[in-house]
Design a protein that fits this description.
single chain, alpha/beta, two-stranded antiparallel sheet, 7-stranded mixed sheet, Glycosyl transferase family 25 domain-containing protein, Glyco_trans_25, 232 residues
Length: 232
Amino acid sequence: MKAFVITLKDNEYSNEVADRCIASAANFGLIVEKFYGVDREQAKQFMYNEGLEWTWANNDTEEMICEKTGLRMHPYGSTDIRAKIGCSMSHYTLWKKCIALNEPILILEHDSVFLRELPKDVEFYGICQINDPSGATRKGGQWSKQMKIRGTIGVHPKTWITTKNERHIPDGLAGNSAYLIKPWAAQELIDKFYEIGVWPNDATMCQQLFPYLEEYYPFITKPIQGKSTTTT
C-alpha cells in the first residue's frame, strides 16, 4: 500500500518530524513518501481555486449549528484559521490522489510515529484509523483506554467518544493522524466539502456524516507532537 506523510515544505519542524515518521515506518518495512501539503499562506487561494469555501463557525467567529447537518460548529480561538484551511486542503489533495491512483492509500500527519508493522491484509470498509487516539484529540486518553480494554485485534467500528446527549458534536477520527482510505470514500469526502463547505478535516470526517468509520487495534502509529503547526 502506498503511504504518504503530509509535510509543510518550508517548515523545518514539519520536515524533521516527517523524516522521523519515514524512518520509523522503514523499521517495519514500509516505504512512506513525503507529500508536500498546502501551507497557511497559500491555503485560502488554493481553496478558492478548487471552487470551495470555508463555512466553519462563521469564519471562526461564533458557535453555531450547521443548518445542513445539524452539527455544532465552534470557534478555535488561538488557532490560525489559515493553517486549519491548509490542513483540510492537504488532506483533500491526498483524497484526490487516492482517487487518481484508484487504490487504497495510507495518509499520515507528520507527527506520526510507527509502533509496529502495518499488516498487509487489513480488511476495512472505506476509512480506518490506525493511530493511538491518546494525545491526538479530546478524550483521546479515554478512547485509547477503551480500545485497550476491548483488546480484540483487527478492524472495529469507530468508538463513539461523544455521549448520546452530545451527538450534535462532530465525532471524528483522532486528529486524522493516520488513516487508511479507499477511493470511493475519498470521493465521498470531497463531495461533502462541496455540499457543506470546508470544515476542519477531522470535523468533516465524523461518524455522524460517515457512519462507516472504523479503527484498528493494536495501534500501528501514535502521534508525538513537539509543537503545533496550526496555532499562531
